[in-house]
């Protein structure tokens, strides 16, 4: 089993990128708490972010220290969950979800000239943002997109497709048990990377051409969106939540639809499964987390990495 990238702090939800000739990893920073495990994820009670970097996978890992903390962000109350970072025009944009003072998850963006931060947050949450787990993707044509969403404690079930709040006529506040599964969301970003450039759209994940049903918990989207592009094809990968898998689906457009293809990663030690993929120096790597270092304590996770293999355009399923 691979070793954690670092052992002096707990880290989770890794978003890995090749920036400036190195791999930078943007994880959540798990911390000790007395809050008991519950389905809302209250035990994930994080207050800041660190950035990690390395010259190669398996090499020495640098912890660049606190890159952003809750006390710097006026709208944040608690729970700084899974972040991501994108580079555009020489600046680095750090996207993060957190629970705002009204109890709702929103997403913020913070900016730096360096990939490791420190990041300066915008004073307000991104307009129209909701739910959790932002994943930023800059396409070959320079357009950038933010994928996001998470069920249960991540509150995705409380919103309609366009991001308006549930009015009692459709899904939520519980995850639907019948009909089509709720889809992840995406919006193109403005040129300055700070806001949504368009209304939020719901993404369709299909299996054999039909929307994945809400009852299919081995295939339906739960959280941990990730987008990468390979040989012109868009790969959307995600966690299935209560079945603890990383699944993936492919399509021809950044907006989908994405057809389900299979499992990327089987369940790790711990409840959550959350990953990213990065192409670096001719190889592909999967970053993920497990609770091996904390001996199974669910909210104390550690980031790990493994080389990935493709069989043609299919991802070869991996065990943690
Ligand atoms: O780390 C808190 C939450 O746990 C993340 O936002 C989810 O993806 C899950 O890993």
From TrEMBL:
One of its GO terms (biological process) is carbohydrate metabolic process. GO terms for molecular function: hydrolase activity, hydrolyzing O-glycosyl compounds. Gene3D superfamilies: Glycosyl hydrolase domain, family 43 (2.115.10.20). Residues 163-182 are annotated as: Disordered. Pfam families: Glyco_hydro_43. The record marks 133 as: Important for catalytic activity, responsible for pKa modulation of the active site Glu and correct orientation of both the proton donor and substrate. It comes from the Eukaryota. InterPro entries: Glyco_hydro_43, Glyco_hydro_beta-prop_sf, Glycosyl_Hydrlase_43_Enz. Keywords: Carbohydrate metabolism, Glycosidase, Hydrolase. Signal peptide: none annotated. Belongs to the glycosyl hydrolase 43 family. This is Xylosidase, putative. It comes from Trichosporon asahii var. asahii (strain CBS 8904) (Yeast).
């Amino acid at each position: 089993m691979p070793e954690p990238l670092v052992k002096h702090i707990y880290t989770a939800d890794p978003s890995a990128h090749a920036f400036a000739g190195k791999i930078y990893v943007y994880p959540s920073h798990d911390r000790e708490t007395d809050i008991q495990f519950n389905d809302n994820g209250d035990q994930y009670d994080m207050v800041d972010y660190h950035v990690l970097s390395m010259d190669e996978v398996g090499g020495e890992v640098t912890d660049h220290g606190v890159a952003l903390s809750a006390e710097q962000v006026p709208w944040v109350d608690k729970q700084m969950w899974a972040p991501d970072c994108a580079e555009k025009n020489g600046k680095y944009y750090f996207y993060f979800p957190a629970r705002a003072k009204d109890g709702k998850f929103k997403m913020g963006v913070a900016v730096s000239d360096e990939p490791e931060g420190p990041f300066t947050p915008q004073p307000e949450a991104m307009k129209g943002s909701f739910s959790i787990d932002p994943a930023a993707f800059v396409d070959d044509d320079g357009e950038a997109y933010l994928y996001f969403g998470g069920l249960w404690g991540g509150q995705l079930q409380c919103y309609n497709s366009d991001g308006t709040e549930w009015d009692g006529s459709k899904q939520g506040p519980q995850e639907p048990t019948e009909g089509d599964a709720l889809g992840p969301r995406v919006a193109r970003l403005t040129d300055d990377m700070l806001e949504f450039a368009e209304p939020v759209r719901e993404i369709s994940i299909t299996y054999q051409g039909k929307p994945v049903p809400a009852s299919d918990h081995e295939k339906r989207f739960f959280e941990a969106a990730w987008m990468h592009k390979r040989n012109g094809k868009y790969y959307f990968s995600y966690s299935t939540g209560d079945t603890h898998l990383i699944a993936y689906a492919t399509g021809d457009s950044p907006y989908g639809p994405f057809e389900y293809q299979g499992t990327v990663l089987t369940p790790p030690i711990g409840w959550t499964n959350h990953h990213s993929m990065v192409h670096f120096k001719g190889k592909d790597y999967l970053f993920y987390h497990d609770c091996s270092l904390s001996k199974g304590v669910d909210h104390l996770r550690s980031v790990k990495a493994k080389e990935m293999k493709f069989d043609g355009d299919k991802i070869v399923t991996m065990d943690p």
